[in-house]
Design goal:
Order of helices and strands: HHHH
Number of strands: 0
Shape: rod-shaped
Radius of gyration: 44 Å
C-alpha cells in the first residue's frame, strides 16, 4: 500500500480517484443525475392516456353518484309506501249480534 493510499485510509476515505490519485472524501462524491422520468414528473405534464383515464374516472364517479341517488330515492319511496297508514280493517260483526237484531223485528 502506498503512502497516499495509506493516509487516505487513515483519514476515513477508503478508495482513491484513479485519475488524480487523491483520496475522495465522502463530501466530494458526485451527485447522481436524476432519471429522465423524474424530470417529466417534476414538470407536471400529463400524457394523453392520463387525460383519458381522468375523464373515464370522472364519468364513473358521476355514474356511481347518480346510481346512489336513484337508489336512495327508491328506498325512500318504498319506505313511504310501506309505512303509509293502511285503512283500518272492516269490523267483523258478531254473529250473535246479527241474530239479536234480526229477532227484534
Amino acid at each position: 500500500m502506498s503512502f497516499v493510499a495509506f493516509s487516505a485510509f487513515v483519514q476515513g476515505s477508503w478508495y482513491m480517484d484513479d485519475q488524480t490519485a487523491t483520496p475522495i472524501t465522502p463530501h466530494q462524491t458526485p451527485t447522481p443525475t436524476p432519471p429522465p422520468a423524474a424530470a417529466i414528473v417534476l414538470a407536471g405534464s400529463r400524457t394523453e392516456r392520463e387525460i383519458e383515464l381522468a375523464a373515464e374516472l370522472n364519468q364513473e364517479k358521476e355514474t356511481r353518484r347518480h346510481r346512489e341517488i336513484r337508489l336512495a330515492e327508491l328506498e325512500d319511496e318504498n319506505h313511504r309506501l310501506k309505512s303509509a297508514s293502511a285503512p283500518a280493517p272492516a269490523r267483523k260483526s258478531d254473529p250473535w249480534t246479527f241474530m239479536e237484531t234480526a229477532t227484534e223485528d
